[in-house]
Amino acid sequence: MTPAPIPANETERLRELHELLLLDTPPEERFDRVVRFAAEQLDMPIALVSLVDEHRQWFKARIGLAAPETGRDISFCGHAIMRPELFVVEDAKLDPRFADNPLVTGAPHIRFYAGAPLRGPHGHAIGTLCVIDTVPRALSPLERSILEALRGLVNEALNGEGDEA
Question: Within a 13 Å sphere around the CA of 33, how many CA atoms are in the beta-carbon half?
Fold first, then answer.
C-alpha cells in the first residue's frame, strides 16, 4: 500500500478546509441528495462527499457506507486530491498503491474508485465527490460527465452558491 503524498500547499489547504466549518457537522440535504443521485445514476453501491483533514477522511455525505470516516493514511481520496482531474482506479486489487489496503482486503472491499476533487473558495482541493464499487469497472464518457457535473454542484454548495435547500 502506498499512502497518499502530502500536498505542497497542505497548510493553506487545511486552513481553507477548516474555514468552511463543515467538519463534524450534521448531515445536510444539499450534499445527501448529490450522493444519492450519484449512486443511482452511476449504479454504484457507495457514494461519498469526503473531506480530507490532517488525519482522516470524514464523510459529509454518504450512501452505502456506515463508517463516518476512515484514516487518511488508507484513503483513496488522499490520492485524488493530489490532482485536478478525476482520479480513477478501475481495479484496486491490481493497483500496487491499493492492493493490500485494508479497505480493499476487508470491508468495504473496494475494487473500483472514482474521485472528483472538490475545491474550496480559494481553489484548494479539500476532498472529493467519490463513487465506489465492490467489482472492477470503468467509467464511460457519459458517467464521467455525470460525476463531473455533480462535482460542480458540490463545489457550488461548498462555496455558498446555488440552492441551500
Answer: 9
Residue 29 grid cell = 440535504
CA 34 to chain centre: 12
| Whole-number Å distance between alpha carbons of 90 and 138 | 6
| Residue 13: predicted pLDDT | 97
**Residue count of the chain:** 165
In Å, how far from its chain's centre is CA 158? 14
Residue 46 grid coordinates: 457507495
All structural domains of the chain: 10-158 (3.30.450.40)
**Residue 43 Rama label (left phi>0; alpha psi -120 to 50; beta):** left
Angstrom distance (rounded) from CA 77 to CA 17: 14
For the stretch 99-120, pLDDT in tens is 999 999 999 999 999 999 999 9
Q: Report the phi/psi class of residue 45: left, alpha or beta, with left for phi > 0 and alpha for psi in -120 to 50.
A: alpha
CA-closest candidate to residue 113, choices 91, 82, 146, 85: 91
pTM for the whole structure: 0.94
H/E element holding 21?
Answer: none
Distance set, CA 118 to CA 86, 100, 128, 143 (Å): 10, 27, 5, 18
